[in-house]
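// run 5 | inverse folding | seed 20
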């Protein structure tokens, strides 16, 4: 049986509550030209763990989850995710879909040695991707 901590419980409850609201919410429009990208690491880079991941954002401002402001959103980091989450629902909250609902623009990750993929996806105040989605290219890194 898996045990979850209070932070994980809070995130799961937040996503569940947001998913109930999102049906009536509709997609938040993304400004034309909005883009999210990795400042570091770079695609193909070999790194050591723990590593610092820095997020870049153009054409959108950063606002914490729950704060509804035009032309804003917050980051979600997808780690080793093969299939993108539903674009009309809140991004899942688990160890492969990491939420930065406080408006953070970087994180430190512990990753096992080997090849990993990273992708950024911006969500609105309810964790739902914008329309069209604002997401980075998927990058591949190797952890020594």
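// decoded
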């Amino acid at each position: 049986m898996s045990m979850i901590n209070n932070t994980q419980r809070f995130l799961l409850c937040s996503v569940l509550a947001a998913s109930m609201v999102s049906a009536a919410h509709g997609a938040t429009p993304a400004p034309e030209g909005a883009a999210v990208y990795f400042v570091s690491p770079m695609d193909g880079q070999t790194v050591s763990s723990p590593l610092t991941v820095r997020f870049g954002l153009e054409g959108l401002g950063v606002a914490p989850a729950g704060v509804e402001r035009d032309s804003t959103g917050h980051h979600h980091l997808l780690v080793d995710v093969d299939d993108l989450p539903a674009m009309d629902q809140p991004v899942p909250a688990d160890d492969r879909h990491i939420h930065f609902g406080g408006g953070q623009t970087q994180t430190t990750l512990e990753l096992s040695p080997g090849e990993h993929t990273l992708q950024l996806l911006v969500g609105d105040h309810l964790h739902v991707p914008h329309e069209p989605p604002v997401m980075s290219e998927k990058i591949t890194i190797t952890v020594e």
